[in-house]
């Protein structure tokens, strides 16, 4: 379980940055595909539970789907190897469609695998203990959950560090193959270890899935109600009572309780729509911030670690301090009220994110708004009109031909086209993986042609009274760029400039420039755009609010749901809860593609507003909800009249069901003790997950 959780969360931590910087997708597309993947990860557990309970059993389901899972991780690692299609050995994949196709195949396999085994692993572990081994079972789950937390926490710390490394055969690039490869290797280890223990396991046979039975009961009630929709038929108290002709009253009463809780689930996806953006929009937001924490350097994708750390802190504080204090104040803080507060806190988190985004927009010039004809005044009497491309981040880094004219002193120059190649040296030990757009312009006022290069990036031969452009798109917060200036006579001057994140400089070579020992002192430098200095620490308040909302909303929501449903139908509520997470991620991808808001802070405000609206609706629904005791309701049907059962059985045997179901469906909904225990263990596992 440690290896599996490390594999999943490690891959997911760097996924959105892989989309943005390797596949060259824009923020909206990267966010859309990310949340599509997460949605499928929360839809497939329903399929896995049905396969395990109705067909293969838990052990075979875990083995087969883990193989699928492992193959998916391996395919993802292969898709990130840029050298595969780098035919000209310049560090740029020539066939990006190949990498995209492999990525989609890999993510599909991972979604099927991780989701399919999710409801099986903890329940299978619980099956290894007898009824009298409660102490041993408790110890097992303590270790099991420790492994889950350790795997997920360490992966969000270590995997971004692996991604920060540089690797490659022909050229050194950010090492996404290593970031995906290590999780793939750990998944292989997990599969091998699990299979080795096959002979020691207690493998229970499939006993049928209660979710399928509930769905059939609901479907029959709807069809029967539709057939008897006319006024000549007598009406019934509840629409589920129309299933009475085929299913026993105990099952119908249990389904009624489940449906009552599922109705409250309708507004919940909006919470998850905001919560799961920690791995997409918030990570992308962190890429535009300063991650210098003194001796500690934080990668943008490592900020996700704040969430699990705060969970470990806030859960005991809530249970031991906050809730008892509220109780002493004589406040009726019911579970539904807690969930309402949790959604409100999540909305506040996105308002905080919007405020952070506004500060980022102030400290980083919005390049999309810079157009042809902006006036830049370097340290020279000369005024230079320059062109900024519309969206440099959306253009392949080393193949960029804007096709626009540039001007100097009223004179029109030629069309600008260049091929970027560069290698930059990190400044001191600071190697922050933050996207950085650095514009540099050289104005040659010297009397002869000069050749200017930095690393492997070449300005070409610059002539007098023309301006030349160079653009860095890099992932380093502070770099030391070394410019090498040569003339036709072989004279050389080395000029160094420390470049900050998001900055733009104009370098002017005056007519008085002279080669020699202190030649760099005669080069004038103008700072056109200041480096971004807004710190990542400002994201901590929004992480605190969203995590506090999670603790109040998620934990309380599951506890409430299970207290209001029959013990043998908790798996149905688990399926419903997972479905709300999936739908929430679908909401994100719809908004990301449909809204098209010009500013990111406006999108944060939109999500916060939607959640506040949904929160008000949920509070209204909760106000009219009546709490029940499922055990008492079930007890009313525990000793039903045997004559009624015999009469019902005889009527059913004399009639062929319209939907073709056999009499095997007409049985009590009571499950065995082991089946109840299995369902409870599944839910306990999901809650901790």
TrEMBL record:
Stretches with biased composition (Basic and acidic residues): 640-680
Gene3D superfamilies in UniProt: MFS general substrate transporter like domains
Q: Name one GO biological process term.
A: protein transport
Q: Superkingdom of the source? A: Eukaryota
Keywords recorded for this protein, A-Z:
Membrane, Peptide transport, Protein transport, Symport, Transmembrane, Transmembrane helix, Transport
Topology with respect to the bilayer: Multi-pass membrane protein
Residues that span the membrane, as ranges: 32-51, 63-84, 96-117, 138-158, 178-197, 257-275, 309-327, 339-360, 424-443, 572-592, 604-625
Q: Name one GO molecular function term.
A: symporter activity
Q: Which Pfam families match?
A: PTR2 (PF00854)
> SUPFAM superfamilies given for it?
MFS general substrate transporter (SSF103473)
Q: What is the lineage of its organism?
A: Eukaryota, Metazoa, Chordata, Craniata, Vertebrata
Q: Which InterPro entries match?
A: MFS_trans_sf, POT_fam, PTR2_symporter_CS
Annotated region (Disordered) at 639-689
Q: By what name is this protein known?
A: Solute carrier family 15 member 1b
Signal peptide positions are: none
Please report which protein family the annotation says this sequence is part of: Belongs to the major facilitator superfamily. Proton-dependent oligopeptide transporter (POT/PTR) (TC 2.A.17) family.
Q: What is its main location?
A: membrane
Subcellular location(s) of the protein: Membrane
- GO cellular component, as recorded: membrane
């Amino acid at each position: 379980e440690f290896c599996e959780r490390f594999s999943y969360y490690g891959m997911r931590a760097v996924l959105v940055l892989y989309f943005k910087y390797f596949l060259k997708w824009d923020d909206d597309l990267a966010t859309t595909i990310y949340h599509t993947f997460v949605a499928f990860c929360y839809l497939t557990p329903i399929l896995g539970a049905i396969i395990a309970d109705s067909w293969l059993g838990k052990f075979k389901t875990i083995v087969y789907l883990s193989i699928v899972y492992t193959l998916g991780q391996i395919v993802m690692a292969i898709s990130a190897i840029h050298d595969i299609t780098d035919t000209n050995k310049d560090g740029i994949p020539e066939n990006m469609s190949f990498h995209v196709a492999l990525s989609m195949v890999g993510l599909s396999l991972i979604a099927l695998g991780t989701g399919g085994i999710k409801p099986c692993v903890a329940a299978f572990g619980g099956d290894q203990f007898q009824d009298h081994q409660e102490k041993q079972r408790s110890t097992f789950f303590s270790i099991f959950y420790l492994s889950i937390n350790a795997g997920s926490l360490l992966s969000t710390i270590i995997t971004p560090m692996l991604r920060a490394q540089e690797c490659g055969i022909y050229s050194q690039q950010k090492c996404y193959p290593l970031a995906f490869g290590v999780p793939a290797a750990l998944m292989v280890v997990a599969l091998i270890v699990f299979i080795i223990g096959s002979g020691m396991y207690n493998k229970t046979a499939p006993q049928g899935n209660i979710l399928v039975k509930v769905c059939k009961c609901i479907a029959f009630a709807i069809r029967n109600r539709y057939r008897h929709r006319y006024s000549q038929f007598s009406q019934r108290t509840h629409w589920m009572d129309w299933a009475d002709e085929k299913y026993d009253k105990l099952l119908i009463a249990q389904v009624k309780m489940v449906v009552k809780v599922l109705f409250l689930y309708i507004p919940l996806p909006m919470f998850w729509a905001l919560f799961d953006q920690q791995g997409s929009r918030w990570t992308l937001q962190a890429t535009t911030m300063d991650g210098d924490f003194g001796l500690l350097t934080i990668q943008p994708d490592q900020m996700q670690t704040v969430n699990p750390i705060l969970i470990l802190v806030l859960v005991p504080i809530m249970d031991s301090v906050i809730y008892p204090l509220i109780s002493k104040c004589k406040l009726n803080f019911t579970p539904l009220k807690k969930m309402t507060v949790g959604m409100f806190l999540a909305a506040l988190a996105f308002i905080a994110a919007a405020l952070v985004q506004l500060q980022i927009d102030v400290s980083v010039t919005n390049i999309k708004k810079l157009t042809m004809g902006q006036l830049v005044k370097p340290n020279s009497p000369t005024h230079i009109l320059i062109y900024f491309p519309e969206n440099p981040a959306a253009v392949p880094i080393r193949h960029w031909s804007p096709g626009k004219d540039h001007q100097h002193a009223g004179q029109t120059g030629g069309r600008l086209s260049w091929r970027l190649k560069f290698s930059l040296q990190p400044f001191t030990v600071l190697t922050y993986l933050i996207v950085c757009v650095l514009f540099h312009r050289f104005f040659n006022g010297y009397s002869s042609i000069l050749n200017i290069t930095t690393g492997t990036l070449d300005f070409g031969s610059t002539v007098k009274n023309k301006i030349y452009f160079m653009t860095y798109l890099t992932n380093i917060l502070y770099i030391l760029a070394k410019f090498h200036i040569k003339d036709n006579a072989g004279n050389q001057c080395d000029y160094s400039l420390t470049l900050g994140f998001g900055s733009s400089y104009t370098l002017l070579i005056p007519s008085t420039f002279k080669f020699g020992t202190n030649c760099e002192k005669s080069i004038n430098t103008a700072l056109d755009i200041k480096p971004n200095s807004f710190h990542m620490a400002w994201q901590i308040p929004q992480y605190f609010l969203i995590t506090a909302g999670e603790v109040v909303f998620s934990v309380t929501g599951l506890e409430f749901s299970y207290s209001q449903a029959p013990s043998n139908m908790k798996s149905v509520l688990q399926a419903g809860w997972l479905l709300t997470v999936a739908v929430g991620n679908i909401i994100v991808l719809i908004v990301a593609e449909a809204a098209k808001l010009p500013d990111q802070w406006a999108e944060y405000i939109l999500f916060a507003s939607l959640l506040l609206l949904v929160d008000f609706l949920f509070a209204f629904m909760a106000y009219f909800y009546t709490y029940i005791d499922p055990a008492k309701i079930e007890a009313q049907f525990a000793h039903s009249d045997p004559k009624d059962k015999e009469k019902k059985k005889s009527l059913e045997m004399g009639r062929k069901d319209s939907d073709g179901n056999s009499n095997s469906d007409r049985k009590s909904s009571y499950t065995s003790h082991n089946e109840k225990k299995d369902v409870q263990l599944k839910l306990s596992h999901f809650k901790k997950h």
